Amino acid sequence: MMEEGGIATVVIASGVFRNRLAAMQIPRTVLTRHPMGRPIGRPGDHEEQRRIILEALNLLESAIKGGILVDLPDRSV
Amino acid sequence: MADEITSEFFEEFKNSFSYGSRSDLNFKFLKSYSVEEASKFFQDLLWKLGDSLDDGDIRQLEEYIFQSQSKGYADPGRYIYETAPFTTITKPVSELRMALLTSSGHFVDGHDPKPFGIENMTQQEAEARISEFVRSEPVLSEIPVNTPEEKLRVRHGGYDIRGAQIDPNVNFPLTRLSELQKEGKIGELFSPVFSFVGACSQANLLKQTGAAWLKVFQEYEIEALLLVPV
Lengths: 77, 230
Fold this sequence. Notes:
- The complex is a heterodimer.
- By secondary structure, chain A is an alpha/beta fold.
- Chain A has helices spanning 18-23, 46-62; strands at residues 8-14, 28-32, 68-71.
- Chain A has one domain.
- By secondary structure, chain B is of the alpha/beta class.
């Protein structure tokens, strides 16, 4: 809806919901390996929160078509 | 009188984590598990808990909970589309006017959205009324960008808010985004930022309220949205 209205969007979500988000054909989605309720990382983990947001901003800028899901690896991997 | 000890079928036990007597929204997915699956979940969870006593690695516990939750939400849901609209951005993110919209249920202290006309509804009350929430019209809270974290409040009957209460940035990254704007990574973080309780009528959101919000964002000349569904 927002995209139809000319507003570009990027989603950050927990990969717990990967299948549901993939079905929606959302333009740009960054999926994290953090559990429900905490998609952007643990409380106080500023470095991880920042990493995830920067990945989302990068996707916003670089995507040239919709339906892209980026699965962010666990930072410890 | 001594407390009575009652026995309970395991099925009742595992279901009690989903808005039941042992409600814990991190584990509400257990309601979708079979008895065998839930039994295996608890067995493996306790084994990994035992491992963590020796290696101190809680990351493996987080990963196990993540995988278990994923299994509980593996179905594609009701909203299945073949394609969707796509708007290309026409300038770098460092020049964009961007807004934040989350479904985490955040609002500013003193500006309670008063669900069902009730001020200061507790999290416990919100969970108890979840079936009413998911039929209700979503209400958008506006949060000025310069709101101190200690003035933020969160309430949402659909997920465990403890992490968000400790650090809003786990799903409402206002502070992180403000930092990135100061560094020049984002052109402008639009004020206010927005949040609503995602446990609402999805039909209303898709067919009515969402369209009204779009008009507001267009009037504000917002060029991009960072969306955080919870």
